[in-house]
Amino acid sequence: MAARAQGRLAGADDLEAAIAALELRLPAPLRPLARVAHNYRWSWSDDGERLFAAIDPHRWHLAKHNPIRLLSEVAPALLERAAGEAAIVARAQALADALARELADAPALVGGEGTIAFFCAEVGLHRSLPLYSGGLGVLAGDLLKEASDRRTPMIGVSLMYRSGYFHQRVDRSGWQHEYWIDADPERSPAVLVSGADGRPLVVPVTIGEREVQLRVWRVDVGRVPLFLLDAEVPGNPPIDRWITARLYEGNRAIRLAQYVALGIGGVRLLRAIGVEPARIHLNEGHAALAALELAADEVAGGQSFAEAARAVAPRLCFTTHTPVPAGNETYAPGELLEALGDLPARLGLEPQELLDLGRLRPGDALSPAGMTPLAIRLSGAVNGVSRRHGEVARAMWQPLFPGRRADEVPIDHVTNGVHHPTWIAASFRALFDRHLGRAWRERPDDPASWAAVDAIPDGELWAARCAARTCLIDYVRERSVTDRLRRGEALDYVQAAERTLDHEVLTVGFARRLASYKRMRLLIHDPRRALALLRGPRPIQLLLAGKAHPLDEGAKGIVQTLFALKQAEAVAGRVVFLEDYNLSIAGSMVGGADLWINLPIPPQEASGTSGMKSALSGGLQLSVADGWWAEAHDGDNGWAIAADEEADPEARDARDAAALYDLLEREVVPAFYERDADGLPQRWLAMMRASIKSIAPRYSATRMLAEYRARIYRVGG
Description:
The chain is an alpha/beta fold. 44% of the residues lie in helices and 13% in strands. Strand 3 and strand 4 (176-179) form a beta hairpin. Helix 8 packs across helix 30 (701-713), helix 10 runs parallel beside helix 13 (333-340) and helix 11 (289-300) crosses helix 12. The radius of gyration is 25 Å and the shape is globular.
C-alpha cells in the first residue's frame, strides 16, 4: 500500500522531484516555469500558450506544444535571451503565482468528503497528451478542468496509451491512411508515481490466468490529479505491454484487457493510494468492471453477491454516451470469461450468472454480454447526455427493467457542456472582458452574466467575429501548404494553398469523428447546388476535418469524394480538408467558423459539443434537431433541420440535404451578406447575440458539473 504521507496525495513527491530537475536546466528568472509546465492549468490560462511560444516559436511547434519538451530541448542561448527579457520573466512569474494561489485553495482531495473518482477510457486535455480520440475524451477533459475551477474534489482515472489514437494521412486520391506514433511519457507533463518504498508503484490485475503489472502516472489538471495506468512495465511480456499501447485497440482480446485494466485496475489504484471516494463515475461502459471489483471486496468481507451489489450501487454513477444498440459493444461468452479469469469465483457467482449481468435478456447461455448493461444494472445513478438522449436511452434499455414502461426506466439525463476558458477565441475573450467584466468567467452558467452582450456595440461584436475568422484562415493556409506537400501534390496546387479561402467570405465548419451517421456526404449530395453556393456572387467556403474509423470504408469514401471535387472550378480555393484532426485544429475551427454544421441521422447524436464551442465565439448553428440542438434551438439562435425519422435512408438523405441547401441559400447567406450603411450584417449580429446569450450559460461545463453534483453524484453543493 502506498499510504498517504501527511495528507499528500500519491505522486506529490515525484512531482516535486521532476520540477526540481527541470529547474536545474533553466536560468533562475525562468525557473517558475518548471512548476507551471507540470500542471495543465497553463493550457486554459489566457497567456499560457503564448508565453511558451514566445521563448522559441519554432521549437514550440516542433514540440507539439508540449512545455516539458520545449523547456528541455530549447537551445541554452535562447533560454538566456528569454531570461533577459523583463516582460517574459514577469509573465512567467504571473502564471506561477496564479497557479500557487489556486493550489493553495485546493479542496481536500484525499479521502475528503464528497470526493469523486472519474473513470474514462480517454481524456482530452491538450494536444501534447494525446490520450483521446474524439468527443468522449474532450468532454472528460472539460469536466476535469471545470472540477478544478469549481474546487470540486475529483480524481481522474484512465490509461496511459503509449501510441494513443491513430494519426491520419490522406493521399492524393483522398483516401485515408492510418499510422501511430509512440509517445514518451517521460517527456510530458506526467510523473511516474512511487510507492512507500521509493520504487514505482505497481498495481496488479488478473487477466485470464495471468497477472499483469500496471505502473501509475500522475498528471495534474489544475487542482485535479489524473492517474493513468500503464502496462509498459519491465517483467510484463510483450502481449501484456501492448494492453496500453493504442486507444481503442482493434484486437478484441486486447480491448477487453484494457477494460480490465481500467475498471478493476482503477479501483485497485484508488485502494493503493489510500483514496476512498464517495462516488465512482463510470463515463461510458469501458470502465464497468470497476463495479464488479467493488462488489468483490464486499463478497470477500462475507456478503453474498446480491448484498454486495446493493451495497456498492449508491457509490456508482454511470453515464452512457451511445444511443444505438450496435454502438454498445458486446462479447461472446467465451471471450468475456477468458478475460475475467477468477472474477466469477471472487464474486461467488457461476460464470453464467456473471454473464447475465451484461446481457440484455438474461438466461440465454449463447447470447453475448456487454459493458453497458452491466454498468446500468450495478449503478445507483444512470444518465444520458442530452434530454433527447435520455428518452432514447430509456427506450433502448427498457428490457433491463421488466415490468416498467420506458418512461419509468431510471435513466436521467445531464446535457453536456463545455469548458469556456478552453474554447473561447482570443478576440471574444478580450471582448467579453471589456463588456461583461469578470462575470462570464466566474459565473458562466448564470444567464445574467451574459445579459450585457446586448449592449456590445455592433462594430465591436463584428470586429471580434472577423478577427476570429482571420486567425482561422491564416492557420488553415499554413496547415494546407504542409498537408499538400506531404501528399506530393503539384507545386502550383501547393502554392495555391497560400491564397486559399478569403478573409471576408462566409466560413462554414464541419469537423468531427467521421462516422457514417454524421453524414458529411450531405454537403455534396446535390453537386450542382453545392457548387453554386461555393461559386456564387455571395459565396461560402467550407472547412472540413475529421477521422474515419480505420474499418469504416464508407466514411473514408466520403472524404475521397470530396477530394475528387478539388479540380472543379472555384472549389480548390473554397474547400479545405485539414488532415489529422486534433484538439489544436478543433480549437481553431470552432473559434473561427461563422457557421457550424451538424447533420447526424436522428436519433443517433447523443449530444455533441462542437456546436456549443462554436457558439461561444459567435458562431451560428445549422444542425439537425438531434442531441443538444434539439433542446437548444429556439428559432432565433440558429437554424434547425427537422429530426424526422425515415425508414428509407435515401429518401431521408434527399429530404435533409434539400433542407440544408434551402436554409443556406434562402436564410444563411442573405443574413451574412446583407449589410447596413456601416457595412454591418444586422440580421447576423442579432442572431449572434441570441446565440451567445442562450447557449453560453446553459451549455457550460459549470452548469453540467453542478447538475452532476446535485442529481447524479448527490454529494452536496
